[in-house]
TrEMBL record:
Keyword set includes Iron-sulfur: no
Family matches, as CDD domains: MPP_PhoD
Keyword presence, Signal: yes
Cross-referenced InterPro entries: Metallo-depent_PP-like, PhoD-like_MPP, PhoD-like_sf, PhoD_N, Phospholipid_Metab_Enz, TAT_signal
Signal sequence annotation: 1-48
Record-annotated PhoD-like phosphatase metallophosphatase domain positions: 173-513
Domain Phospholipase D N-terminal: from-to ranges: 63-159
High-level lineage: Bacteria, Bacillati, Actinomycetota, Actinomycetes, Kitasatosporales
Entry keyword set: Signal
Domain of life, per lineage: Bacteria
Species of the source: Streptomyces lunaelactis
Protein name: Alkaline phosphatase
Length: 544
């Protein structure tokens, strides 16, 4: 897509910083350059005036509340003030606002466990992130915010168990890919009603593509969306507006209020199929890094992430590790920010020397070392890797002339081999990979050698279909026969929308693939398309 410089103008201080440093210098100090570009927008430097919250005359909590990254005795709370979320300034003046928050043991807030205040800075688009500590381990809590006389909706969250605690069960949800313009977020309405300890979002929380006046496939009969949504997101203002649109969806707000989310991104939070500092479109890298800096900042502003994840310009440390007692270790990956460029120009291609080059990486060397090192010290029953793109081999046809996706781990096969070898060397018996991206549900056995069906199974992969991307979908997509025949380690393939529920126990893990019949019309019921179990110490999926 060609972008108009007038419609997609980056903030002057961003452009000035990039021009001052020059292309080579900018690319060699990406983080420093972009951090400099954003420095004038950090709280404490602009000396914004303070707005008395009592003077806010419209509901500022239109985007709801959220919690995330639960740890033992701690959880992060989030909200963003927006009286008019479809406007660039969200309806608020450029002034800081004092909020109060409280976290209680009960939904009526009669037994308050913690309370405090926090400042919503205009430099962060009036978003707040509160890391609440000193809580009980493995306990549910309720939370809310106050701004003047306004009280936010209440959210429910849960802390993680102590690192060495023995817990018998952990209930999780896995979601991905929620294109607003492809349909309603009906699956989130059902997810909000599930009994879960946490939800993993595996990427594509929003899409950069234009959303027309009727919301694309939603085809609204009763509203008209502003024209500024009907363009691709490029600037910080564009991304902020798009989060305002997405988070105004009532089903998404309900899911956030019901469960703690643990998030990682994929490509569409910035731009389709970008690789590190290499864009999909033919713009100069330094221009793309301005866009990436804007996208990363807006992502931070709108998600319940902890302070270590706050971006520095075009860089953001999103990969991290969470523990839930002795039952599970979660290594949340970022396979987008550090990857090598896609081989053979991207797309589905015949694998060859370029895609199989050992120097190629999907995670970057530093993140790969962090992952393998973490496995060496793991004492968890289940080692789970929430990440973005399909990990298992996925041939498109059951013949010798097959192709694989250059954007997935198939396009970085040496990188995948190192990860699997690292898991085996660390003695990881119960490896589980959680994946999004592809808008279908898959269940795979992970093989030591995917080219040999008799090769040992070393783990499992559960791929969560999309919330809405791809529109209604079908139980058996057009390539169902080819993919199932070409990949004997594929145990399930379904093309409807929905999510996966995962129950981890001491003896086995269970996956329930939950789907809805339609997203282009609202209100579809939820059903279970298939269920599988894998036994602890004996990897391999079996129908439940």
């Amino acid at each position: 897509m060609t972008h108009s410089p007038n419609r997609h103008a980056h903030a002057p201080e961003l452009r000035a910083a990039a021009q001052h440093l020059g292309r080579r210098r900018f690319l060699t100090v990406t983080g420093a350059a972009a951090a400099l570009a954003f420095a004038v927008n950090l709280p404490g430097t602009a000396h914004a005036a303070e707005l008395d919250a009592k003077k806010i005359t419209e509901d500022p909590f239109t985007l709801g509340v959220a919690s995330g990254d639960p740890q033992p005795g701690s959880v992060t709370l989030w909200t963003r003030l927006a009286t008019r979320p479809y406007e660039p300034d969200s309806g608020l003046p450029r002034a800081r606002v004092q909020l109060r928050w409280e976290l209680a043991h009960d939904a009526r807030f009669t037994r308050v466990a913690r309370r405090g205040s926090v400042t919503a800075h205009p430099e962060f688009h009036h978003s707040v992130h509160v890391d609440v500590t000193g809580l009980d381990n493995d306990r549910p809590y309720f939370y809310r915010f106050r701004a003047g006389s306004w009280i936010s909706p209440a959210g429910r969250t849960r802390t993680a168990p102590a690192r060495n605690a023995r817990i018998s069960e952990l209930r999780l949800g896995a979601v991905s890919c929620q294109a607003y313009h492809d349909g309603y977020f009906t699956a989130y309405k059902h997810l909000a009603e599930e009994d879960l300890d946490a939800v993993f979002h595996l990427g594509d929380y929003l899409y950069e593509y234009a959303v027309n006046a009727v919301g694309g496939a939603r085809n609204y009969p009763d509203r008209v969306l502003p024209a500024h949504f009907n363009r691709e997101t490029v600037t910080l203002e564009d991304y902020r507006l798009r989060y305002g649109l997405y988070k105004s969806d009532p089903d998404l707000r309900a899911a956030h209020a019901a469960h703690a989310f643990i998030l990682t991104w994929d490509d569409h939070e910035t731009e389709n199929n970008y690789a590190g500092d290499i864009p999909e479109n033919g713009v100069p890298p330094e221009e793309f890094l301005l866009r990436r800096a804007a996208a990363y900042r807006a992502y931070w502003e709108n998600q319940p992430l902890r302070r270590p994840q706050r971006p520095a310009g075009a860089d953001m440390h999103l990969y991290r590790r969470l523990h839930f007692g002795r039952l599970a270790q979660f290594d949340i990956l970022d396979t987008r920010q550090y990857r090598s460029d896609q081989a053979y120009g991207d797309g589905w291609k015949v694998p060859g020397p370029e895609s199989q080059d050992p120097a190629r990486t999907l995670t970057g060397a530093t993140q790969e070392r962090w992952l393998l090192s973490g496995w060496k010290s793991s004492r968890a029953r289940w080692n789970v890797v929430p990440q973005q793109v399909t990990f298992a081999q996925r041939r498109d046809v059951p013949t010798a002339a097959y192709k694989v996706s250059m954007d997935a781990w198939d396009g970085y096969s040496a990188s995948r081999d190192r990860v699997l070898a690292g898991a085996e060397a660390a003695g990881i018996e119960n490896l589980m990979v959680l994946t999004g991206d592809v808008h279908v549900g898959y269940a795979f056995d992970l093989k030591r050698d995917f080219n040999d069906p008799a090769s040992p199974t070393v783990g499992t992969e559960l791929v969560a279909t999309s919330i809405s991307s791809g529109k209604d979908g079908a139980d058996k997509p057009g390539n169902w026969d080819n993919l199932t025949k070409a990949n004997p380690h594929m145990k399930f393939y379904n093309g409807r929308r929905g999510y996966v529920n995962i129950t981890l126990g001491e003896q086995q893990a269970r996956a329930d693939f939950r789907t809805v019949s339609a997203v282009t019309t609202p209100g579809a019921p939820i059903t279970t398309a298939a269920s599988f179990v894998t036994e602890a110490g004996s990897p391999g999926l079996k129908p439940a």
